[in-house]
Amino acid sequence: AEVPAKSCTKIMKELNGACSRFSDLQFKPKIVMPCGTDNTRKIILLDDKHRSNNLIQLEGGSVTDIDVKIVYRNWSASQILRAILPDSIDDSEVVSGFEVIGHIAHLNLRECHDKYKFVIGQVILDKNPFLKTVVNKLKTIHSEYRYFDMEVLAGEHNFITTAIEHKIKFTMDFSKLYWNSRLGSEHKRIVDLIPVGSTVLDMFCGIGPFALPLARKKCHVHANDLNPESYNYLLKNITLNKIPQQFITCHNQDGRELIRNFDGQIDFVLMNLPASATEFLDVFRGLYCGRKSGLKPPTVFCYHFAEMTSPEKTSTEAVIAKLGCQVLPDEVHLVRKTAPKTWMTCVRFVVPHSVLYDESENKRIKLDTEKSEKLDNELDTFIF
């Protein structure tokens, strides 16, 4: 409709927005536009149902047809991808969400996307101006350090980025270590549960999403990661965030060594390695044998991947199997779905005294050590 400029507000109010046909667009065209060079009149885009509204004529306006161009910029990424991807790709498989780590978009594409992965990456880059790099996770995983290979689909080949989580900055090389922005609420949940002043051993700390906020909270944290890249960025992030050094000690070793070599009261142990954390639970067997009396048993937060049907039961059974005794968890928390049939869980339990003071395990470790030392001596004698 072409109407007097002075009547625009009145007409728009009466017509309740006038035009809703562009509501699905990411960037909508202007509903009210100039009428050429005539400053006394305006163009209002209308829905068809408003064409015969008497107010337009009463205010001195008229209804006419004009062409409105809807271009690539107006559509959202998911709308564009739905339009260009073949019908064989179901609507539920059209990429609509992704993880964001600083300037990086992290996709986890399926096999059906393989032929179109680079155009998918470019569309996501175009539609999100804050992004500079779009990557896709590959199936290859580094078994020792537990991070995935990835390929660049669009943008810069730049993996050095910074994520901000609960007012703490985490700088990293995303291609060489593990980070998951979707775990922010879980990190906060654990930090909130652990009291100020507690001694916490973080066995697989990564770049510090648990360790740094706990140290800032004035817990005494021993943060460990086997991956040298994670360890180096952990140190950088401590400095970057001005974390008090007296509250955090960093280690670059096997998680079992962190536990075995720690001499003192352990209040909490974090085991955030869901693919294999339960395999490390045997480190607690006989842990307190030969140590000073009066040590309280630690509370463990052990992460695990469990079947969708009964995740609490599956995770509890995995913990019991490795500890070698019955244990009643304080809680089995469902963290998030990681696949159509898989939950990531967090089992919280207090290590039983029978496990901590298991003499048979202590004797086994001592025997293994003696055998190893004997073999070393025999090899030295043979060599020299």
Question: Could you describe the 3D structure shown?
Answer:
The strands form four sheets. The chain has a seven-stranded mixed sheet, sandwiched between helices. It has a four-stranded mixed sheet with strand order 4-5-6-7. A three-stranded antiparallel sheet has the order 1-3-2, with no helix packed on it. The protein is an alpha/beta fold and 384 residues long. The longest helix is centred in the C-terminal third of the chain and has 25 residues. The model has no long low-confidence stretch (mean pLDDT 88). The protein is built from eleven helices and 16 strands. It is elongated and about 100 Å long. A hairpin with a 2-residue loop joins strand 4 and strand 5.
Describe the structure in brief.
The protein has 11 helices and 16 strands. The chain is α/β, with parallel strands linked by helices.
Ordered list of secondary-structure elements with their pairings:
Elements: E1 2-4, H1 8-14, E2 32-35, E3 38-44, H2 54-58, H3 77-84, E4 99-101, E5 104-107, H4 117-127, E6 133-141, E7 148-155, E8 160-165, E9 168-173, H5 184-193, E10 199-202, H6 211-216, E11 220-224, H7 228-240, E12 248-251, H8 255-261, E13 268-271, E14 299-307, H9 311-323, E15 331-339, E16 342-350, H10 353-356, H11 359-383
Parallel strand pairs: 5-6, 10-11, 10-13, 11-12, 13-14
Antiparallel strand pairs: 1-3, 2-3, 4-5, 6-7, 8-9, 14-16, 15-16
